[in-house]
Amino acid sequence: MQYNGSESPSGWSIGILRTMRPMLIVLLFLIAACGPGERPTAPPSPAIVAVDIPSRAGSLGPNLARTGDGRVVLSWMEPGAADTRSNTQFGTVVAGRIR
Known about the structure:
By secondary structure, the protein is of the alpha+beta class. The protein is built from 1 helix and 4 strands; from the N terminus they run αββββ. The chain has one helix spanning 14-33, and strands at 60-66, 72-79, 86-94, 97-98. The model has no long low-confidence stretch (mean pLDDT 77).
């Protein structure tokens, strides 16, 4: 194959290489812009707070649940007066106290 000046020795047209050069430069800038950058920080860990449960002796089944608006509700079962049935009790945890 002879080189006549309009083609590169590898067979690519010089016109194609001139057209692709701006696109390659833009592609390199886009790749550089998508670099690692700053990593997001992890959300803070929730605080662990000891809560005194105002339950009577013989209470069963404490349960913590979070409501849709972020409040924490504690429920438990207490034995009834005649020990024949249980009463369900609940309270909202606010600043480490049941209300």
